[in-house]
Design brief:
Layout (H helix, E strand, L loop, with lengths): L23 H21 L5 E3 L11 E3 L12 H27 L4 H13 L3 H11 L2 H18 L5 H24 L2 H33 L1 H61 L2
Antiparallel strand pairs: 1-2
């Protein structure tokens, strides 16, 4: 007798996973580090910006006598290009997350959208409710649309009782939600990490700068050494200012995005509740 191989059961869900590349998560930080070094080395560290440039050049020229206030940041040391890279990374992911969240928010107000869907479902007009989802074009609309397709399928199904149909709709909503939420939260880790690390990097640059300044004071002594000490401390503090500023910016936008994502998540939860309650009430 020939052996019969079991075949895998096909999933009944209409929700399809979204395949999107996340190459920006590694391309952007690397590119920002390179750009940060270029800004520090060739823009701030341009020989024309210093009274005593280092003609030898190299990876880290020892220029002296910065001619401008912003140029003094160059003498903050090798931590400065890393901090510039952190700041650029914050800008990149703020723009990337802003575009994603705006797209996920869709058009119009989520609460108004859900009320319209509730009205159409109360009148047993599922097609009109689906049309509202097409107009919304956001994450709440996508989840609601997936649930409504299953909702429409369950209306004509005779193989399950009402409770099983409600559970099938709920499962469909949960699967659609599981595909939408990761897209919203993706790459926020960069903002939260930079919010913590940038301040520490700034303090590290300041400490390194002060170590160098106090070493010069111990070696030279006198009024000239005291002058170099105050100058060195001033330059080192640029690291702290840049680190704190970058961290503050990352924290602000991280909180803005998480608040908006919480609002979208609440709309998704409400849409699932609307579908299950509507079906349980109308199709007992």
């Amino acid at each position: 007798m020939a052996e019969i191989k079991p075949t895998a059961a096909k999933s009944s869900t209409s929700v399809q996973p979204k395949k999107k590349s996340n190459s920006i998560s590694w391309v952007a930080p690397v590119a920002c580090i390179i750009i940060g070094y270029i800004i520090w080395r060739f823009v701030l560290g341009n020989a024309d910006n210093f009274a005593k440039p280092d003609p030898a050049g190299g990876f880290w020229p020892k220029h002296e006598g910065p001619k401008g206030g912003l140029v003094k940041m160059y003498e903050g040391g090798i931590i400065v290009p890393i901090l510039i890279a952190c700041l650029l990374t914050v800008f990149v992911f703020v723009i990337e997350r802003l575009l994603t969240v705006l797209k996920a928010s869709g058009t119009g107000n989520n609460a108004e959208f859900i009320r319209k869907v509730q009205y159409h479902l109360a009148n047993k007009n599922v097609d009109a409710a689906l049309a509202e989802c097409d107009k919304q074009r956001g994450s709440v609309g996508n989840v609601m649309k997936a649930g409504l397709r299953k909702y429409k399928e369950m209306i004509t199904s005779t193989e399950m009782d009402t409770e099983q149909k409600v559970l099938a709709i709920q499962k469909e909503v949960e699967e659609a939600t599981a595909l939408e939420l990761p897209m919203l939260e993706k790459n926020l880790v960069f903002l939260s990490t930079i919010a913590s690390v940038a301040t520490l990097l700034g303090l590290l640059g300041t400490v390194l700068g002060m170590i160098t300044s106090f070493s010069a004071l111990g070696e030279e002594g006198g009024g000239e050494a005291a002058q170099k000490l105050s100058q060195g401390i001033s330059e080192a503090l640029y690291n702290t200012a840049l680190g704190i500023g970058t961290s503050a910016l990352a924290i602000i936008f991280y909180n803005i995005f998480t608040t908006k994502i919480d609002s979208i998540t609440y709309g998704i939860d409400e849409s699932g509740f609307t579908l299950t309650q509507s079906f349980a009430t109308l199709y007992k």
